[in-house]
Amino acid sequence: MTKSCRNCKQELELSNYYQFHNKWTGHKYYSARCRPCHQLYKTVSPTTKRNRKAEKLQLRYGLKYEQWETIRKEQNYSCMICGITEEILNKKLDVDHCHVTGVVRGVLCNPCNTTLGHARDKIEVLEAAARYLQKNAGGYKS
Q1: What is the CATH number of domain 2-44?
Q2: Which of 24, 86, 87, 109 could form a disulfide with 79 if both were Cys (CB 3.0 to 4.6 A apart)?
């Protein structure tokens, strides 16, 4: 069975197309572009994961994708607080920024980043939390 590529217009065997699966409907379908055209499309399409990430970084933090990659590399792809690596997490680190100034401070794992956010970036809240953990390490005392 053959199919015509949307991009190069060549009539090719289905083995030359990527096959996708819609998990909601259970249907399988073939890409509209042959494999080489599909790869080219992914590099320029604004909807690809890398390009969506680049747009998000630019809009939220004023960072270029390459700057984010540089920060991650300088930090050895690890969280600045707990030290966990992207390899262990199996995902990329989050951008940490000051909510008052908007300045990017580095990259953190999601739990460390949200901890700072929940503490509203207040050092005294984090210090109080540390004191609480030290005082109550043995459990609740009545």
Answers
A1: 3.30.60
A2: 109
